[in-house]
Design goal:
Elements (H helix, E strand, L loop, with lengths): L2 H20 L7 E5 L5 E5 L1 H25 L3 H29 L6 H20 L13 H4 L2 H27 L4 H32 L7
Antiparallel strand pairs: 1-2
Helix pairs in contact: 1-2, 1-3, 2-3, 3-4, 4-6, 4-7, 6-7
Length: about 220
């Protein structure tokens, strides 16, 4: 078993330990959903709350592990294993935050979520940077899938835009602004980081196939 996969199983175990530790302390209703303003608008029973994140984490781990069976190339396996670690780390933070809020700690969930999304986005961008063309990991458009050069250049660009977006989102999260503006700013940064590489892929593909200059890479 690889080191990254071992870490993934450790993170899954950590979500279970968090649930076991907090379960006896949970109130009759545990917050489970927050609106755009950071207000609670959904609840679960203690058992549902203790089981939900560990079960979702396990299902995700199984799905990602099975995906490596479909394509066992080293770059793809490593990218998938990095994504496992990144997403399970997010779930650990999410479960711990929910448990702390449920037991009385005044933690602003909307800011934790946005910081978590920033970490997810930056981490996934790094994981995809060197991945080879494939059918389930990466920016899969007609232009990237039909031209390996466009694929590699697009993913190198996406790595940079996603890291920058993650940093911008993290900075926005730390600003003393209302939750609604926090969401709009973070979402705008993320959408820009996604669509910029897709536009680049379209233009770069036609540059190569039409034989024009690549000076605006």
């Amino acid at each position: 078993m690889s080191r990254l996969r071992t870490i993934s199983f450790g993170l899954l175990g950590l979500t279970i330990l968090i649930s076991l530790w907090f379960y006896p302390q949970l109130p009759a209703q545990v917050p489970s959903h927050w609106d755009i303003n950071g207000d609670v608008n959904g609840w679960q029973t203690p058992l549902q709350s203790a089981l939900f994140v560990p079960i979702v984490s396990l299902v995700l781990l199984v799905i990602l592990w099975l995906s490596t069976r479909l394509d066992s190339r080293a770059s793809i396996r490593k990218a998938v294993e990095w994504i496992m670690v990144i997403m399970l780390t997010f779930f650990v933070v999410l479960q711990l935050t929910i448990m702390l809020i449920a037991t009385g700690y005044p933690i602003p969930m909307e800011r934790v979520i946005m910081l978590g999304i920033a970490g997810l986005f930056g981490g996934i961008g790094r994981a995809m940077r060197d991945v080879e063309p494939n059918g389930f990991v990466g920016i899969r458009t007609y232009w990237t899938m039909t031209n390996p050069q466009v694929w590699h250049e697009t993913h190198r660009l996406a790595y940079r835009t996603m890291i920058i977006s993650a940093l911008i989102t993290a900075i926005i999260t730390l600003l003393p602004i209302p939750a609604t503006w926090l969401f709009i700013g973070g979402l705008g940064s993320i959408l820009l980081a996604v669509f910029w590489p897709m536009i680049f892929a379209y233009r770069r593909y036609h540059q190569l196939t039409d034989g024009t200059s690549a000076s605006d890479r």
